[in-house]
Design goal:
Layout (H helix, E strand, L loop, with lengths): L1 E6 L2 E4 L4 E9 L5 E8 L6 E7 L6 E2 L7 E6 L4 E6 L8 E9 L3 H4 L8 E2 L3 E6 L1
Parallel strand pairs: 2-11
Antiparallel strand pairs: 1-3, 3-8, 4-5, 4-9, 5-6, 7-8, 9-10, 9-11
Length: 127
Amino acid sequence: QVQLVESGGGLVQAGGSLRLSCAASGRALSNYGLGWFRQAPGKEREFVAAIPWSSSNTYYADSVKGRFTISRDNTKNSVYLQMNSLKPEDTAAYYCGARTTFLFSRYYSSSSTYDYWGQGTQVTVSS
């Protein structure tokens, strides 16, 4: 069982920055990878970024490459999403999810393969 709690969302102007945090708790976190997804009203949940718990590999959606950075602090059991150069189209509820590291490099972007989710945090970017 893994518990995830997101924080750090808010309202920001276009071009601004936000840093989201995902605090994880539970057993054997090293067996999981964490991913950030987002969902705008009326749209499906989409992949943003992912990172395995025990690897330095990172994965990004094309829409956020060069603007967003995912990182991990194992000492705090937390994963972060630094979002720079925000655009109005980044407006969405952002969710942190956890899935096993088995075939992580193949399925990191598939939300249906994630076993645990946080409650989400809202990011609103004004133009």
